[in-house]
Specification:
The protein is an alpha/beta fold. It is built from twelve helices and eleven strands. It is globular and about 60 Å long. About 45% of the residues are buried.
Length: about 325
């Protein structure tokens, strides 16, 4: 699928997944492209299932990258013909239904889609943004064996540290410098890894036997925003399925965000989807209300239920 230059030059608003490193990277690539053309574009960070996301209305000139219009109402956008670029499995029907570009996680993420379908056709792209997109993809799709994995983790730290608003403004003004950004990213990664190791040591762990096999489970309370990294450490140490949780405020309401991570024996995505969330096969998430029990015992019971669900589904 190719997006025409004519359609790309009708874009006036860009909606991107946030807070998400890949979504931010995608927005930066799009921002650089349109800034180079001196084309005025407004950027809007969007998180799934928030009032802002659910309240979006179809208008001409919309581009969605690493996120889609609300899944429950996507058909309202058919007449406006938005540009939609996404790689999440739960978004496939929406993207294809709106004539957008859907790609699997094998070699794509929001940032790579932005580079290939916005930057390349409009300005030819450049090697710095090409690698920036590739590195974002490696992290977002959890390719831990990729030679760029550590670079990807460092880039993620810097993207989250600076935030999408500041980074997009720097790109649009021409003050963003890749070398300075990446140098700072390496320092941030060292500090983050040390903090994550401390959190991982405090995780609650149990083992459960289902279907004649043993599974290692772990839960932890994340207070430093690095749930993915902490969970990754626990997976590397032998856990099969991990839940990390933290409290936040969305739309003025307190919520509990739960991140699920797994190895190839179980599906983090299945855990999340069954509880109203979504994501990738080994990296996913969902929300619960603060009134719900998120004690280590309650989360461990949830994990055991999830293992039981998946083991039974195989038989």
């Amino acid at each position: 699928m190719t997006i025409s230059k004519e359609k790309l030059l009708q874009v006036s608003r860009v909606f991107f997944h946030s807070p998400c490193p890949d979504g931010t990277a995608a927005a930066m690539i799009v921002a650089d492209t349109y800034a180079g053309l001196e084309w005025p574009v407004k950027f809007h960070p969007v998180q799934y299932d928030t009032k802002f996301h659910e309240g979006l209305r179809p208008e001409p000139g919309q581009l969605f990258v690493d996120i889609t219009p609300p899944i429950s109402r996507w058909r309202e956008w058919i007449g406006c013909e938005p540009i939609v670029l996404d790689h999440h499995e739960t978004a496939k029907e929406v993207v294809e239904g709106l004539g957008g570009v859907y790609a699997t996680n094998e070699a794509h993420s929001g940032a790579k889609l932005a580079f290939e379908h916005v930057a390349l056709p409009l300005c030819g792209g450049n090697d710095e943004w090409r690698k920036f997109a590739e590195v974002a993809m490696v992290r977002d799709t959890w390719k831990k064996d990729h030679p760029l994995w550590r670079d990807a983790c460092a880039q993620k730290e810097a993207l989250m540290f600076f935030g999408s608003k500041k980074l997009i403004e720097q790109v649009q003004s021409g003050s963003f410098r890749h070398d300075q950004f990446l140098s700072f990213a390496s320092t941030l990664l060292d500090a983050s890894e040390a903090a994550s190791k401390t959190h991982a040591r405090g995780a609650h762990k149990e083992e459960v036997e289902m279907g004649g096999e043993k599974y290692s489970l772990a839960t932890f309370n994340c207070t430093n925003g690095n749930a993915s990294d902490i969970a990754n450490m626990l997976i590397n140490e032998g856990s099969d399925l991990v839940l990390g949780y933290f409290f936040t405020i969305e739309d003025g309401e307190h919520k509990v965000i739960i991140s699920a991570r797994s190895n190839d024996r179980l599906s983090a995505r299945a855990v999340a989807v069954a509880r109203g969330g979504g994501g990738h096969e080994r990296a996913a998430g969902f929300r619960v209300k603060p009134a719900d029990d998120v004690s280590p015992a309650a989360l461990m019971a949830l994990l055991k239920d999830a293992v039981r669900e998946q083991v039974l589904a195989r038989t």
